[in-house]
Write a structure and sequence with these properties.
By secondary structure, the protein is of the alpha/beta class. The chain contains twelve helices and nine strands.
C-alpha cells in the first residue's frame, strides 16, 4: 500500500505524543469554532463486514476537517484542538449528531460505531449528550456501539465503568478499541461492561506469516469466547488476512481491503448495492 493511503488509515490517526501535546494556536482555535458553527467538520464512514457472509453490517464514524491552511486533519487532532479550546462537547454533539442522522436511514440491522474520547468519559454530561443526539436523530440505542481505547481509561477506570454501565443500561454496546496495541490491562475485561473487542491492526498484520502472531491471535480469540465477547478485526488489508480472521472466529472485520472511509452518501450507495 502506498504512503498516502497509509497516512489516511483510521488506525494511523493516532499521532505521536508530542503532536498530541502541541498547544493549539489561537487561529486554530478560532478556525475550529467557526468550522463547527458552519457545519464544516466532515464525518466519514468505514464499513464493517460480517465474517459469516461478507455483508456490510456496520460502519465506524470518523471525523475529518479540511483545514484551510493545514490540509486534512484526522479525528485525533481535531478532538485535541477541541479539548484545548473548550469545544469538546460542541464537537462531540456536532459529529455524533451527523453520524446518527446518517445511520437512522440505514437498514435496522446495520450498526453505527462512534469513538469515545478520554474527555467524553470524564464528562458527567456525556450520557445526556448522547441521549439528546439519539432523540434528535431517532436512532435506536440498540444500533449504537461506543468504541473506547485503553488510553481513554487510564485516568479514571472506576468512574468510566460507572458511566459505561449506565449507557449499556440504555441499550448501547461498548467495544474496547485497539485491543493489543497498549499494555492490555486485563482488569478492563473484569470491570467494564464490554460487548466486543476490536483488535488493533498490529494483531492482524502478521497472522498469515508468523506462527507466534497466529498463536497470540488464537489466545485472544479463546479468551473472548470464554468471556462471551464478539471480536472485530481492524486493519484488514489483504484477502489472506480476511480469510484468517474469519477462519479463527472473528465476527466482523474492517479495513482497506473492504473500503476506505467514505461519505454518508457513498456508504448509503454501498448498502443499496
Amino acid at each position: 500500500m502506498n504512503r498516502t493511503a497509509r497516512l489516511t488509515h483510521p488506525m494511523i490517526e493516532r499521532r505521536t505524543s508530542t503532536d498530541r501535546r502541541r498547544r493549539a494556536a489561537p487561529d486554530e482555535v478560532a478556525s475550529l469554532a467557526r468550522a463547527i458553527a458552519r457545519g464544516e467538520i466532515e464525518v466519514l464512514f468505514q464499513p464493517q463486514y460480517s465474517c459469516e457472509n461478507e455483508a456490510v453490517v456496520g460502519a465506524e464514524a470518523l471525523v475529518r476537517w479540511h483545514h484551510p491552511e493545514h490540509g486534512m486533519l484526522a479525528g485525533d487532532r481535531v478532538f485535541a484542538l477541541a479539548q484545548q479550546a473548550g469545544l469538546a462537547p460542541d464537537l462531540a454533539r456536532h459529529a455524533h449528531g451527523i453520524a446518527m442522522q446518517a445511520a437512522v436511514r440505514w437498514p435496522d440491522d446495520v450498526r453505527l460505531s462512534l469513538n469515545a474520547t478520554a474527555v467524553d468519559l470524564a464528562d458527567p454530561d456525556f450520557p445526556s449528550l448522547l441521549q439528546a443526539c439519539l432523540a434528535e436523530s431517532g436512532l435506536s440505542p440498540a444500533r449504537l456501539t461506543l468504541e473506547i481505547t485503553e488510553q481513554a481509561l487510564i485516568d479514571g477506570l472506576e468512574s468510566a465503568a460507572r458511566m459505561l454501565c449506565a449507557l449499556t443500561d440504555r441499550g448501547i454496546a461498548i467495544a474496547l478499541d485497539d485491543f493489543g496495541a497498549g499494555f492490555c490491562n486485563f482488569r478492563y475485561l473484569k470491570v467494564l461492561p464490554l460487548a466486543a473487542l476490536k483488535l488493533d491492526r498490529s494483531m492482524v498484520e502478521g497472522i498469515t506469516t508468523d506462527r507466534r502472531d497466529l498463536a497470540v491471535f488464537r489466545a485472544i480469540m479463546a479468551m473472548a469466547r470464554a468471556l462471551d465477547l464478539k471480536v472485530i478485526a481492524e486493519g484488514v488489508e489483504t484477502a489472506a488476512q480476511r480469510a484468517a480472521v474469519c477462519r479463527e472466529g472473528c465476527d466482523r472485520w474492517q479495513g482497506f481491503l473492504g473500503a476506505e472511509p467514505m461519505s454518508a452518501d457513498a456508504f448509503a450507495s454501498l448498502l443499496a448495492r
